[in-house]
Design brief:
The complex is a heterodimer of chains A (117) and B (110).
Chain A: E1 3-7, E2 10-12, E3 18-25, E4 34-39, E5 45-51, E6 58-60, E7 68-73, E8 78-83, E9 92-98, E10 106-107, E11 111-115
Parallel strand pairs in A: 2-11
Antiparallel strand pairs in A: 1-3, 3-8, 4-5, 4-9, 5-6, 7-8, 9-10, 9-11
Chain B: E1 9-12, E2 18-23, E3 35-40, E4 47-50, E5 64-69, E6 72-77, E7 86-93, E8 99-101, E9 105-109
Classes of the chains: A mainly beta (117), B mainly beta (110).
Chain lengths: 117, 110
């Protein structure tokens, strides 16, 4: 059974940093691209970033380019999102998802990031 | 990259069919066969319903179908059931090597 377990969310001040993690199981993690997708409270879905299966190729939405960094450790079956220079508008539930730019067939349960002073 | 355009809400009675549209541009929906649709119940993670315009994940209900004409993709749900009441989102690959979602459509089963 495919499982994606998101973690690392919390309350952070504007300008601060946070690192999200997503532990994957039930599939050959190193064979698949992965993504982060976020959803602000009461709003729709927004794709944030994607990474190829080897980690050598990364993609970002304009809204986070230069502030967020996606990475993966295939030896640990784990996906990461390093978020720097956080803003109030980054407040959202962040989901990791299997797949990058085509479709996402499995999703984590989400982790809430709140940016507030 | 602007969000794809979806109607804010649609409704239908049990047993009926409804269609949700998703309009983009030639740089996303119209340019690639990489449109997917997601169902999201309140407080839950999204669930993939349709990928590559019209393909269904294995084991999923055949009451859900997808299509595309020009810059507009559509999701049709036939034989509406109470459990279909949810938010639905489309997404598409873009020429900027990104992914864009629609604004979402709330489906109400009357």
């Amino acid at each position: 059974e495919v499982q994606l377990l998101d973690s690392g969310g919390g309350l952070v001040q504007p300008g601060g940093s946070l690192r999200l993690s997503c532990a994957a199981s039930g599939f050959t993690f190193a064979s698949y691209a992965m993504s982060w997708v976020r959803q602000a409270p009461g709003k729709g879905l927004e794709w944030v970033s994607g990474i190829g299966n080897s980690g050598s190729t990364t993609f970002y939405a304009d809204s986070v380019k230069g502030r967020f960094t996606i990475s993966r450790d295939n030896s640990k079956n784990t996906l990461y999102l390093q978020m720097n220079s956080l803003r109030a508008e980054d407040t959202a539930v962040y989901y990791c998802a299997k797949g990058a730019l085509q479709f996402h067939d499995y999703w984590g349960q989400g982790t809430l990031v709140t940016v507030s002073s | 990259q602007s969000a794809l355009t979806q109607p804010a809400s649609v409704s239908g009675s049990p047993g009926q069919s409804i269609t949700i549209s998703c309009t983009g541009t030639s740089s996303d929906v119209g340019g690639y066969n990489y449109v997917s649709w997601y169902q999201q119940h309140p407080g839950k993670a999204p669930k993939l319903m349709i990928y590559d315009v019209s393909k269904r994940p294995s084991g999923d209900s055949n009451r859900f179908s997808g299509s595309k004409s020009g810059n507009t993709a559509s999701l049709t749900i036939s034989g509406l059931q109470a459990e279909d009441e949810a938010d639905y989102y489309c997404s598409s690959y873009t020429s900027s090597t990104t992914l864009v979602f629609g604004g979402g459509t709330k489906l109400t089963v009357l």
